[in-house]
Structure formats: structure tokens, C-alpha cells
Amino acid sequence: MKKITTPLSREDARALRYGDNVLLSGTIYTARDAAHARMTEALQLGEPLPFSIENAIIYYTGPTPVKPGRVIGSAGPTTSSRMDVYTPVLIKKGLTGMIGKGTRNLDVIWMMREQGAVYFGAVGGAGALLSRCIESSEVIAYEDLGTEAIHKLTIKELPLTVAIDSMGGDIFIQGTADYLLWKLHLL
Q1: pTM of the predicted protein model
Q2: No. of H helices and E strands in the chain?
């Protein structure tokens, strides 16, 4: 298990390989579809983003409302492919990490390889458990989007797996192939 603290430099991102298990600590940001659309529009208009994207990690989640005594509600990953249309430009601007669930398209993977970024997979359906790793949460932009507003999170040892590395290694493809080869060997 590798322990990583943000910010995530391109060198640190390039050192990770698909299948690596990590415990991530530090500051990350939440953003889903609507927030990504607004950030992309801001960049097209030459406006600044609501946070520094350089060496940042975005968690594709829309936290549920906070329950008494908690910092945040359930914060599980959402399907990452919905952000694929927006992601290459953010990676080019400095984004080095993304957290979500599911596969990514070839444009995203190509930009990850070109720029040195990494995609972490989080366990879907475990949002209540994952939220226990969040020490603080603050809405910093697009409050009108409700649960899709951008939050600045302070996290401690969020358990993740490198799903796609900066070399294009992809657990969804290679993990399946490795399993099939293992199974054939046993037959």
C-alpha cells in the first residue's frame, strides 16, 4: 500500500502503475458533470478556475446532505465517463489525478499519457465508508448546483486503486486479460 499526499506532482503520478493500491491524504476537489461544464466554459472565456488545477486531484462525487455530527454526507464515486468530454483540457491545464469509477475514453487516456496524469478507482457503493476518510469539506464554487457544487475536501488515507496509469496501463483491460490467462492456465 503506497501512501500519497497531495499535491500530486507529475513525477509522482508517473511513478504509479495500474493495480497499485494507495492511501491518499491531503486536499482534493469534488466536481461532477455540471461543474465540469462550467469550468470548461470559464477556460474558454479566459476566466480563472475556482481552484488551482496545477497538480490537483478531482473526485467525481456529489456528496449527500450532511448528517448531524458528520463532516459530510455519503461521498461515493460517480461514473467517470460522463466527465470525459471535459477532462483532456483540464489535464492539459495541470490536473494530475482523478478519482471515480468505471472506464475512461481514449482521448482521456491519451492526454493522461502525454501529460503524466493518473486515474484512481474508488469502490462504488461504499460512499458512507469513504466519507469517513474526509476530515473537512467546504463548498468553494457553484453553490447553486447543490450536491454538484465544487467542494474542497481534506482527506486522510482515502483507499484507492490506480485504475489507469500515466503509461496507459488500464486495469479494466489488462486486469481482465490477466484473469483470463490465469484461468486458462488452471484448465
Answers
A1: 0.93
A2: 6, 7
C-beta separation of 146 from 139 below 8 A: no
pLDDT (tens, 9 = 90+) of the chain, 187 residues, equals 999 999 999 999 999 999 999 999 999 999 999 999 999 999 999 999 999 999 999 999 999 888 888 999 999 999 999 999 999 999 999 999 999 999 999 999 999 999 999 999 998 878 888 999 999 999 999 999 999 999 999 999 999 999 999 999 999 988 777 777 776 765 4
Are 28 and 153 in contact by the 8 Å Cβ rule? The answer is yes
d(CA 92, CA 116): 10
DSSP state of 126: -
State the CB neighbour count (10 A cutoff) for residue 82.
Answer: 14
Q: Where do the domains of the chain lie? A: 2-186
Instruction: State whether CATH 3.40.50.2000 applies to domain 2-186.
Output: no
Strand, coil or helix: 154: strand
Residue 139's contacts (CB-CB under 8 Å, 6 or more residues apart) are: 149, 150, 151
Residue 60 · residue 90 · CB < 8 Å: no
Q: Which three cell numbers stand for residue 65?
A: 446532505
Cβ distance 113 to 153 under 8 Å?
no
